[in-house]
Amino acid sequence: MEYVFKYPQNAFIRRPIENISKGEIRMSKVDLRQFHEKQVQAIGYLSLPNKGGLQFDEIAERCGISVRQLHRWRKNPEFKQAVIEQSLENVKEELPDVLKAHKKQATKGNVKAIELFYKLFGLLVERQEIEQTVSNKEKDNDSLQQELNELKNLIDDTKGE
């Protein structure tokens, strides 16, 4: 299956990316005017589920670029963000079905599904508390040396075991 990408010459503030699996035009938060047509094509292919069944060399060939160039683009943070946004756009229509299936698992008593459900809606937040105690006692060099010697002895004792 061959995909053809066509975009208007005049770019908008939020330039459209074509959803190539549905033939729809979607808006992106990343300003795609910074990318040229071949990069937008690559974003379209890379954002498909499983890259549309294509390998990197096939995507590069379809975009008329080298695989090396494709890998360089993939390292660019703006390019990565555009791929992520378009990927999310591609699966957005499936989200209600996923949430429905997830809800079904949670109501069946699946603990992980319940936990994820709470996290998804902000009702459960993982939090780690770190407590730091600072001693105001000033130590002289002798007491520090004694403490170091004790630690060295502990290390030596554990190595000997």
List the helices and strands and how they pair.
Elements: E1 16-19, E2 24-27, H1 37-46, H2 56-63, H3 67-75, H4 77-91, H5 95-107, H6 111-120, H7 141-160
Antiparallel strand pairs: 1-2
Helix pairs in contact: 1-4, 2-3, 5-6
Q: What are the salient characteristics of this protein?
A:
single chain, 161 residues, mainly alpha, Arc Repressor Mutant, subunit A, two-stranded antiparallel sheet, disordered N terminus
Radius of gyration: 27 Å
Q: What's the level 1 CATH class of the domain at 16-93?
A: Mainly Alpha
What's the overall average pLDDT, rounded? 79
**Shape summary:** extended
The ordered H/E elements are: EEHHHHHHH
Number of strands: 2
How many helices does DSSP assign?
7
Structural class: mainly alpha
Low-confidence stretches: 1-27
How much helix, percentage-wise, in residues?
Answer: 40-55%
As a percent range, the share of strand residues is under 5%
Distance between the termini: 66 Å
Strand order of the largest sheet: 1-2
- Remind me, CATH topology of the domain at 16-93? Arc Repressor Mutant, subunit A
CATH architecture name of the domain at 16-93: Orthogonal Bundle
Biggest beta sheet summary: 2 strands, antiparallel
In brief, what are we looking at here?
It contains 7 helices and 2 strands; from the N terminus they run E-E-H-H-H-H-H-H-H. By secondary structure, the chain is mainly α.
What does this structure look like?
The structure is a single chain. The chain has 161 residues and is mainly alpha-helical. The protein has a domain at 16-93: Orthogonal Bundle (Arc Repressor Mutant, subunit A), CATH 1.10.10. Helix content is 53%, strand content 5%. It has seven helices and two strands; from the N terminus they run ββααααααα. Strands 1-2 form a two-stranded antiparallel sheet. The longest helix is centred in the last third of the chain and has 20 residues, at 141-160. The chain is extended, with a radius of gyration of 27 Å. Residues 1-27 have low confidence and may be disordered.
